[in-house]
Design goal:
single chain, about 260 residues, alpha+beta, Umud Fragment, subunit A, 2 domains, nine-stranded antiparallel β-sheet, 4 helices, 19 strands, about 40% strand, globular
Amino acid sequence: MLPLKDACENLQSALKAKDASLAETALQKLEGLLSGDFSFARKSPVREWIESLLIAVLIALILRSFLVEAFKIPSGSMIPTLLIGDHIFVNKYVYGIHLPILNKRIVDWSEPERGEVIVFVYPNDPEKDYIKRVIGVPGDQIMVEGEHVYVNGEKVKQTKAEEYEHTDGIDGTKEKFSLHHISLGDAQFDVIYRKNRYHQRQEFKVKKDHYFVMGDNRDNSSDSRIWGQVPSANIKGRAILVWWSSSDANGINLSRIGHLID
């Protein structure tokens, strides 16, 4: 049974690596074994198990590649919307078809809107995925001044500052922030700023086929204010749901499960 086991493992590895050529070769090898010395397995539970495994793997790969993908939040740049240790689902179909092999969208049928939380390939390192909120779309003029953001000359609506306290996910220390409720596009969300922090005035023009993004934890976010804008082709999808949440500092957070991402 070792050759059959090896053939199954080779096929599974090829599918996981998304290598069509290797998968075809491995499948032919498996087919040959089942037709020859292991033909008894064709109508046996072993054969049925192999078929079920292959179907499950293929469905999982299709779902992950084109429809929904799971990500884990590693940093606090999106607090209070997303916490360290949140596990989220990302809708990869909402803007078009993203081809994993080329790592870009090949078909577009909609574009991100202001206020949406997106996952994208970090422009300065294609091996990293980032998650931020869209503030500006192509053609927008963005100005960041203090704890205020202006889009095309209009101040983004926000409430007066409230006090917000958060326990840092790394060393457990508590910090106090100023929290604002924001309305941007169709989105309603919260952002936080460190108290008594100096904020310089910055202005940006969003380029064609690019997006200006910021983290909701405004003073602890590496985003478009620092490294630039996100090309449309880099966008993987829109964050939609927290399906699990746990961290070394706070353990399992059941209250986060099922939380919709605004």
